[in-house]
Amino acid sequence: FFHFYAGICSALKLTVPSHTIHGIEGQPLHLSVDYNFNATASEIQIIWLFERSQSNPKYLLGSVNERVVPDLEYQHKFTLIPPNASLRINPLHLSDEGNYIVKVNVRGNGTIAASQKIQVAVDVPVTKPTVHTEPSSGVVEYVGNITLKCTVDRGTRVAYQWMKNGKCLHSGPNYTFS
């Protein structure tokens, strides 16, 4: 389910996802945009910009009618197929996390314009965890403690949960977590 909100500027309606779009590092990501207007257009311009926090927006690519004008630096990464205003990013990198701004200008009798912002978060898949025991023999009879350490090499928003015989373990007299 996508929840959309529309930005209305004069007779031009521009619709984008209203929530943060999550993409996976190394995979393609599609930013879905719809626009419609009730005017006669002689020229339709679509512009895509990218901004990270505390930095100025960068031009990615744009189109006038059906002709796409890419920024040469990014031409192999971003795709726009006018008259559709949707943007395809392929492949997605961690550095692509931020805000994507789409602006549509329609020239007829006058010019009508609308712009919207789409927030993109990039997730890195979690690698298989490794577990180390101290003492390394893993044998503690009657007295003493054993420490289990779990680590992952890569992954965003990692959460750890220890289980014993299929049941979640919680802090108590027998278990401590750090």
Task: Characterise the protein shown here.
The chain has about 180 residues and is mainly β. The protein has two domains: about 15-125, Immunoglobulins (Immunoglobulin-like); about 130-170, no CATH class. The chain contains no helices and 16 strands. It has strands at about 5-10, 10-15, 20-25, 30, 35, 45-50, 60-65, 65-70, 80, 85-90, 100-105, 110-125, 130-135, 145-150, 165, 165-170. The two termini are about 40 Å apart. Residues about 1-10 have low confidence and may be disordered.
Regions with pLDDT < 50 over 5+ consecutive residues? Answer: 1-10
**How far is the first residue's CA from the last residue's CA?**
38 Å
Strand order of the largest sheet: 3-12-11-6-7-8
What is the name of the CATH superfamily of the largest domain? Immunoglobulins
- The CATH topology annotation of the largest domain reads as Immunoglobulin-like
**From N to C, what is the helix and strand string?**
EEEEEEEEEEEEEEEE
How much helical structure, as a percent, in the residues? under 10%
